[in-house]
Amino acid sequence: MQGRPRVKSLVVSVTLITVVLVVTAVPIGGLPPLSQLLNPSSGVWDPHIPSYATGVQYLNVTVNGSTSAIVVYRESDGFIGIDSNTTWGMYYEQGYLEAQYRLEEMDFLKRTALGTLSQVVGPSVLSSDIFYRTLEDYQIAAEERAGLTVTNQTYQAMHSFVLGINAYINSLTPATLPILFKLLDYAPHAWNVTDVLAVQQLFIWQNSAGGMDPLYFNYALQKMPESVIQGLYPSYPAGIQNPIVPNSINPSIYNEIGDMQNLTLYSPSYNYTGISSPGVAQSDALAIRAYSQINAEDSYAFEKYFGYNGSLNMQYATFRDFGSNDWAVNGVKTGNSSALLANDPHLTTSAPSIWIGFQLVSPGENAVGVIFPGFPGIILGHNTNVSWGATNGQVQETYFYAETVSSAHPYMYYMNGTWNRFQLINESIPVKGEVNYRLTVERAANGVVIQNGSSPIAMDWTGLYPSYEITAVLLNDRANTVNEFRQNLVAYFKVAIQNWAVADSSGNIGIFPYGNYPVVNAGNPRGILPGTGQFNWMGFIPIDKLPYLYDPARGYVFSANQITVSQNYPYYIGWDYESGYRADEIHYLLNSTYGFNTSKMESVQLSVHDFTSNILLRPLLSSLEYGGLAGTAGYANISAWDGNMTVNSVAATIYYFWLSNLVNDTFRPYLQYYNITPAEGLKQTSFFLGSDATYHGPLIEDIINWTLTNPSIHWFNNPITGKARNETDVMLLAYNQTITYLDSAYGSISGRWEWGNVHQRVLSSFFGVSSMNTEQLPAAGDGNTVNAAYGLVSDFGPSWRMVVNMSHPQSAVGIYPGGISENPLSSYYSNTFAAWNDGTYFRLIPETAPAQFYTGYAGVV
Amino acid sequence: MRYGTLIAFLSSLLISFALSFTYYWYLIFIPDIIVGLFLVVRIRYALLVGIGAALGTTLQILSYEGSFRLSESALVAGVAGIPGGSAIFFAFTFIIVFIIASLGTAIGMSLNPVIKKREKDNNPG
Questions:
Q1: What is the reported pTM?
Q2: Tell me, what's the pLDDT at A308?
Q3: Domain spans of chain A?
Q4: Of residues B22, B79, B112, nearest to A312 (C-beta)
């Protein structure tokens, strides 16, 4: 006889299993469902890292009936050579390989540009999406795409490139998705040409100088008397300056009447009453706070019950451009034997790197160097005839306007005597876990509104108008001479002005800070301008008046983000440059060295001598003697020091902190006296004692200038206490603060004070995830050295180093820190970090490379 | 019955091991319903079958590139800000498989008429 099933037990079991299945099938906090995350076949237990087997691979790629033969050569330093019998095949394979090794990075860049990052990350990045949508990245990219025909070479290169990206994306399965996609629970979308152009918009913004500085500086203009502005913030940098294009070498660009004579650079043109969060409209800032509040409440509840707040530890910030070096030598500097070029752009040193290295070979092209993931071509590198590098031009490319609005004229602004309608763009931003965020972007004739309110502030930026910098990049990969390179810049490189240093195989060199330099004819562009129309851009500086040098008799050109021109240049082009001490050191080394070869170029690039010590060390020692400190261990170390920021130097550590204190002790009283608040930029920008004030901007320049010309100048007085001070007093104060701090942090003076113990380099996670950072390595250099290492735990510096001798460019060397892979578990994630930190270079075209990679070169050298 | 339990344990372990190579690892409860229906008679044995399934999944995770997979999960834990590194993922995976498999077995047991009859025989009143 058979019994009946146990109903009660069955019901309980089925109920429980249903509950478990449902709970594991729903997302938890910011994480995907557990059934997906813990899946042994596709979740966190199934790491899939694209293989990187060094050596040669032969492929045939067929697209739309056309076949291209391709040779891929993977090198141990992470560079990849691609040789193809077709141009499209080369770009296709480049797209495929960029996606294979950097898909997460590319997708984040694309989402940043398109303003869709919060769709996958959540409200924490909503402000980024709002900002890039306000910059109209997508709309401008779409306009640029519409301006290209399908037969255009730039279009064809990008089209082939995205086909390669998409071929890789299509090959992925849930199991082979890179880990961040799994963790964030989304799959990458296919790319198109507009996406590449949107990423171009992102990069030209990141590399455009000026930023939001005028919003902050307007407070100084409003709160400080004109005499103080003139004393502390001269419109032309004070101190020792070696301009990129001095009047003495190229006077032809100085003989014109420009706009400088019409500007008022020491008084405000507009009195500004409110600043919320520069770059984000006030109403949006409130909304972001509301979104964050909701998110924070969710996280709190989650943490209370689960001991974990359910959100990812991401502090994603794309990258920052802090400074760079490039120079070229020829003629008397090389015994007329050759032209050589060196370049090291200083960007965030992240892992994965913001660079990816390629050699691209196809009919008519053999170029090698680096490119940003998401782009085709080589942006910094060399080909058979030309080598090139870039530094940020530091030219002001953002101007700010206070618009006149009225409730009687909604959605309108007053300009040139009439009411004009804002162009409105309605956006809906998907936010993970929240409702869509609705944004209305307002655009006036003089820019996009970045802060609304009773007087909306519009920002005009040269990048708000379609341009084709990518075309300049692709054409220059095939350039044959310095002059051809220059013509491509003139035609296509308009935004994110760079100091392009170029050398060719005929021994010519040049430097070309070309692009669109706005011209205004009244007011003070260092701050906010009235939006009435009369202060709008009149146009751009004529091309024949743009700064440049070509084959100067002295035999070298160089830039390190210093002032572009001499003081009598007729046009206003900006004022907040790098302080120029890297440039001064490079100038000294180039001027005093002859017989340049690759080794000597590397020595300059790796110099860790702080030029400021040439000027400040002697007065510091005198101050210590005056203060009765000559018998101290600190004095002994400093007096024996050569000014080199080496890892085993105790004096370097003392000097670094002392210099920082000196700048702070001199200027902080003024900023307090005139009530510059953190909301107004205190400690945020270099000119208001930001963290970079000791190597960037006007304050350190003032101190050097006063030291050289008038150490008793009244600016050393303390305006708050009324105490009269001279330089010696402030130097002693700063020194005592330094010793007190170092004593407390590292004990009494000993080997623990060595610079390498205090100062390290790290490759920080590109995605802002601290657990994906690399180890920290003791590092030489500081923010004023050619081999720059900004900050105490430095993740800014020479993100790419290259030296090319154009007599035999096939022996060029270079290195970027990190590796090809974006997965921290890969042995190619940070494999070049230690070598880079030690100053090692790799051949860009290895001696063992297949013969086709030497096409156009005179064999292996 | 002892052999039946042993067979049930091993079956669950092997099936779980095999399912873990597919996308449908959490469907282990379905075969374990059958296991419970024919091979398991006491609830504590159902728990044993759950342990077998959890071990099967664990063995699959460690069967190839084990240390690498542990490193990957530790990395994910770090990225997500989850304390405990790979151990927390291991614990969750083990517990989920254990619960699902045990419950599946229990469902199978509930459907087994022989057990019902035996219970009646043991409790005639």
A1: 0.91
A2: 45
A3: 612-644+646-758
A4: B79
